[in-house]
User: Fold this.
Amino acid sequence: MKLPDCREISLHLEGGVLSITLDRPRARNAMNLQLVDEMTRTFDAIAQRPEVRIAVLRGADGNFCAGGDIKDMNNAGVTPADGEDPLFKLNRAFGHMLTRVNHAPQVVISLLEGAVLGGGFGLACVSDIAIADVNAQFGMPETGLGLPPAQIAPFVVLRVGLMQARRLVLTGARFDGEQARELGIVHFTTHSKQEMQDLLAQQIKQIKGCAPHANRVTKQLILAVGEQDNETLLDKAAEYFSAAATGPEGHEGMRAFVEKRAPQWAK
Assistant:
């Protein structure tokens, strides 16, 4: 498949796993509008590509992402854009990107090292699986800059709950990877790059043991919890179940179970 041409992120697709590296190391991989656009286009490109089963997010040179690029914000604030509010446009584009990542049909894994701040924190909160170095530094510094964490806040609340989100947002607290695990932001912590890579490989193997389409519809169902009436959602779940049980994945999965072998998608 053809991936978008990018200059602020780098892409590598192999074995159904798309590695996406935020690649602005001099700015600790802070997000400018170009990077946000490239991320959005990348997730748009893979949305209808079932052969891409996993997206792995990481940052170049030891930092995940230091948040929004303040220089980019300053430039946006003084640059007219056909009557549009340029800062609204920049901030809202970031929110659209977060929504794309959150609803990606792929399993999204984030590898969190160094700075995981602001927008980087937001990306961690929309990852299906988050793996952090114990010494990674998490936080939302926006209010200390006189700004609200506007597009991140809803995803943080969904990740950690309102009680913890209030403290994290309103104090700009900084904390490490182990505290992020205790708060429920990340699933695992590691102590070295090799340990992180080994854990990533383990998670990829487990994901590939699950049927691709079943994973996609399951992700749709769990993301719809709280957004739809429960009975309506259960009706939809029954439709998905029936279609899966009579479809090729259901047939293969049940045959593999009876024959005591791995299903085709796990090979």
